[in-house]
Design goal:
Blueprint lengths: L2 H11 L4 E7 L2 E6 L4 H10 L7 E9 L11 E8 L6 E8 L5 E3 L8 H11 L3 E3 L37 H10 L4
Parallel strand pairs: 2-5, 6-7
Antiparallel strand pairs: 1-2, 3-4, 4-5
């Protein structure tokens, strides 16, 4: 689907959510309100003309060191692709430093579960409604978020007690029929 047509379709369907768009090298970038993410993503996934059936990545960004940046400090970029139709899109949202929260899309794409946990762990963005939002790359006693621009790069943090991962294992075992 051509970028301009896709953008117009989204503007018509979600007029209050769309803040703007750009087309860079044939890939559509759409800026929207954070609260609209689940509805927009579900529409893009389920609509027969869009068929964005693959979530490639969720990328979190700290814009605080960007020159002349005037918007909210944090951003989240959703990279989507249609495996059947071959087109791509980027959905971009920003969230404030005081309330870095976005609704989850883990119920729409299975890999969003881990991608959202990574954004939470590294930047500190919370995903409302996520089934198990806890650290995934840093240990559970880690203080802060290492990909924030103000995190001290030489800071060391020791782990004093291992964390049990049985909460996740029990769910997986039950799914496989073990009790």
């Amino acid at each position: 689907m051509e970028s301009a047509i896709l953008f117009e379709k989204l503007k018509e369907k979600f007029p209050q959510a769309i803040k703007g768009s750009t087309d860079r090298f044939g890939q559509l970038e759409i800026q929207l309100e954070a609260k609209a993410i689940p509805d927009v993503v579900q529409f893009l996934r389920d609509d027969s003309e869009c068929e964005f059936n693959m979530l490639i990545d969720i990328v979190s960004v700290d814009y605080s060191a960007y020159p002349d940046w005037k918007e909210d400090r944090f951003g989240v970029v959703y990279l989507l692709k249609s495996l059947t139709l071959g087109h791509r899109a980027q959905l971009k949202v920003t969230v404030s430093e005081s309330n870095p929260e976005i609704p989850t899309i883990s119920h729409l794409y299975a890999n969003a579960n881990w991608l959202e946990r990574e954004a939470f762990d590294q930047i500190g963005i919370r995903f409302e409604g996520h089934p198990n939002l806890k650290r995934i790359l840093n240990h559970h006693e880690f203080v802060g978020h290492p990909l924030r621009k103000d995190y001290p790069i030489t800071r060391r943090q020791a782990l004093s007690a291992n964390e049990s991962l049985m909460d996740e294992m029990i769910v997986r075992l039950k799914e496989k029929g073990w009790e």
